[in-house]
Amino acid sequence: MRASLDIDWADFLGRYRPLALRIARGLAPNAADAEELVDEAVRAVYEAGSSPPGFETTEHARNVFLRTLRNLAVSRLRAVGRAPRRAPVGALEPPAPAPGPLDALAAREWRGFQRERLARALEALPPAEREALVLRYLEGLSYKQLAQRAGRPLSTVHARVEAALRKIRARIGNDEDGA
After folding, report:
1. What percent of the chain has pLDDT over 70?
2. Angle, to 10 degrees, between the axis of helix 31-50 and the axis of helix 9-27?
3. CB 61: neighbour CB atoms within 10 A?
4. pLDDT at 39
5. Domain count, the chain
6. For residues 10 and 91, which has the higher predicted lDDT (pLDDT)?
7. Could you list the residue range(s) of the whole structural domain that residue 161 is in?
8. What is the distance between the alpha carbons of residues 71 and 37, in angstroms, rounded to a whole number?
9. CA distance 105 to 49
10. Which of 98, 152, 159, 169 is deepest in the core (most CB within 10 A)?
11. How large is the average pLDDT for residues 109-125?
12. Residue 77 CB-half CA count within 13 A
């Protein structure tokens, strides 16, 4: 079990409250709201530090303080409708019209054309890179599993997969005529 740090709160607030106020002024609509956000964050970090497990270091307490400040600000902005939420996938695109029989045929042919281009690009890769991509994306192995299987460092396997993806993208991008 880790030891809890006994924090001198007056010193802590003397050091980090000015920084928190500068951050809050950038997040809050006015100075009064910024002050209120900082006060709420101070109460939250004090409560977190007073109960087990507490904080390991002053930096840990500072990080919790500033993260709490940010989270409080975002929560408030969302409550009044000013903070954007991440849009769900596809939410920014207009709905597509209902596909007709010709659209379905064109889509099937386009997917076939894309598969052919991808197959040609894969064939052009060195065997080790091709195998890494197949294992990673078709068999779903993690980078760690790939590294264990290949007997290579994780960074080497990651670099090999990324290099292969760059080559595939370049090849498909340059293969405009499908040849």
Report:
1. 75
2. 140
3. 21
4. 92
5. 2
6. 10
7. 119-174
8. 10
9. 63
10. 152
11. 78
12. 18
